[in-house]
Design goal:
Helices cover 18% and strands 38% of the residues. The chain has 208 residues and is α+β, with helices and mostly antiparallel strands.
């Protein structure tokens, strides 16, 4: 038996527990954890750290994705999502370090895989240098960091590419395009960039 997940109806009413493979086969609603790592450097430039997905991923292989993302195992609470940060980035944080920005509801299909997710979404302000993360190479191909203002211009269509720093990808720098980022119908990257900017500017009432 594989990884077991809690499943829900459209109103987030708990229905039971099911094997992850069957959840994605049948399109059951389930909960996931998302965390966007952001910071402002001493010069006042705002940055976001993201991961590049491995080429063997079932969904969005080789694409840039949320800093940390993963499924809640059956029985885990929202606060247990910090486990994913430790596993994927190799850093220890407490749930109290996270800034909640709401629940994303997302639906996508990839061949025979139907993904219906309730994504508990958070920001983490952390200025660790990109080279210091002990990221999980079995799950993450590498890490990328870029200026939030550059990325906002990219997604708005004002730029074709933006410069970024990278680790694990064969080069220390790269030019990122919109096509390099995970794209689903509700535009999570653009929303995350906007709310990240609001957060770093000191706004308190945040929702993605």
């Amino acid at each position: 038996m594989g990884e077991m997940l809690d499943i829900y109806d459209e109103n987030l009413t708990h229905l039971g527990v099911k094997d992850r493979e069957a959840v994605h086969r049948d399109g059951d609603w389930h909960r996931v954890f998302h965390c966007w790592v952001i910071y402002r450097d001493p010069a006042g430039v705002d940055y976001m750290l993201v991961q590049k997905r491995r080429p063997d991923k079932q969904t969005f292989p080789n694409m840039l994705d949320v800093s940390v993302g993963g499924h809640y195992a059956a029985g885990e609470t929202i606060a247990d999502g910090v486990r994913e940060i430790r596993e994927e980035l190799g850093i220890d944080v407490s749930f109290e370090d996270l800034i909640p920005v709401g629940l994303r509801v997302t639906v996508a299909q990839f061949g025979g895989l139907i993904d219906r997710e309730f994504a508990e979404t958070f920001l983490l302000i952390r200025d660790t240098d990109i080279g210091e993360y002990a990221y999980q190479r079995e799950e993450v191909a590498g890490l990328v960091v870029f200026a939030i203002d550059d990325a906002l211009a990219l997604f708005h269509g004002d730029r074709q590419t933006i410069p970024a720093r990278a680790v694990g990808l064969g080069a220390d720098t790269l030019e990122a395009r919109v096509e390099d980022f995970v794209q689903v119908v509700d535009q999570p990257f653009y929303k995350a960039l906007v709310v990240a900017k609001q957060c770093l500017n000191g706004e308190r009432y945040l929702v993605i």
